Here is the input.
Amino acid sequence: MSKKFDVVVIGGGPAGYVAAIRCAQLGLETACIDKWINKDGKAVFGGTCLNVGCIPSKALLDTSHKYEEAKEKFSLHGISTGDVSINIADMLQRKDQIVKNLTMGVATLFKANGVTPLEGTGKVLAGKKVEFTNHAGATETIDAENVIIATGSVPVDIPPAPKTDDIIVDSTGALEFTEVPKRLGVIGAGVIGLELGSVWGRLGAEVVVLEAQDNFLHLVDQTVAKEAKKLFTKQGMDIRVGARVTGSEVNGSEVTVTYQDSEGEKSETFDKLIVAVGRRPYTEGLLAGDSGVNLDERGFIFVNEHCATDAPGVYAIGDVVRGPMLAHKASEEGVMVAERIAGHKAQLNYDVIPSVIYTHPEIAWVGKTEDELKAAGEAYNVGMFPFAANGRAMAAADTDGFVKVVADAETDRILGCSVIGPNAGDLVQQIVVAMEFGSTAEDVGMMVFAHPSISEAVHEAALAVNNAAIHKANRKPKKK
Here is the structure.
């Protein structure tokens, strides 16, 4: 390949493909390298998120939620359905079709924007050169004015529970169960573990989640975490915190897991075991020794606030660099880098990146939690509003959870928001917008929200920060 590119992107996931498209839109000759091969043996772009992550897991979450609603909740609305059943093969086929549609969509966008797709692997060499190896094994060197590394992350493996073909699996394998396990073990009570546990639990599996941390969802506002644990337990999920897995043994079609908790060593036997203890940056075979790109002590590529590496003209974005491993964070870093390569002054506000757990109820948060503010000794006010007092939530028979807003005690500027309840991911985005513009709780409280709507819970929580909520009793002001 004799052609020189303005930008070569290594990785075709949410970070890489978005960066490539934006670079091309800005008039830069752009190529995007990706090695993904789908289950049909075809090269596709979209990375982990589109192929075996965000998208397929949400497809299964939605199907399993609808099944559970039809089976357990329709009667609340006076709807009779008779016996409700689910065809797992059809569920998986629907999931695969959604993945196919979206990966084909990336290919279409590449073509529309003039991005050159390169199917294979890339290695960063010195002097902004990239060694490209196609799937047939042929290698060539590509010259680039700029290189963007977007190689993503892979699931963390743990020695006590090595993966097998179909008994002990990671998040990818958990998307392909052909039948509902009778007993399902999940190691890790993080986003991935809870979402996948929810899918198969709704479909009838007895789910046990083993979490090594003593605090459930330790990064989430602990008022929310406590409510989530209560609701998930009520749904039938057996969550055991302070449970450190020490070993596993596969016997036929079962696996016995041993773990330590405060009471000593224990064991449980499962039909399937999902290992979901986190993800690590993927840099295998990525960097030549003289590339000039350095890794930090945790194995992430070292970058500055604008995602520039130590090598001039080489950038890194997404899961392979510091910050939360979130597809939307990765995509926005891709846009920022593309803009900066084109000479614009773009930057990313890392203080207002939302996080979402797509269980039901959903859990979402942005900014600081009350726990963080308390630990830092910062003065703040809190406003909360329960969905049980929201008319739209009542009409939908979806009243679990609440909205919580925290604001600076002196300036009233919103510092964070946590939501557990219906459409939490969409609701928290309203506060993301407000925080981006430096809004106060009073600003949000003075806005007009549609009635009846779930969004009114955000409105009332913002009002509650200053003891002005209308549809709940406000806390009594402190006596002077």
Q: What stands out?
A: The longest strand covers residues 139-149. The first helix runs from residue 16 to 25. Residues 190 and 221 are 14 Å apart (CA to CA).
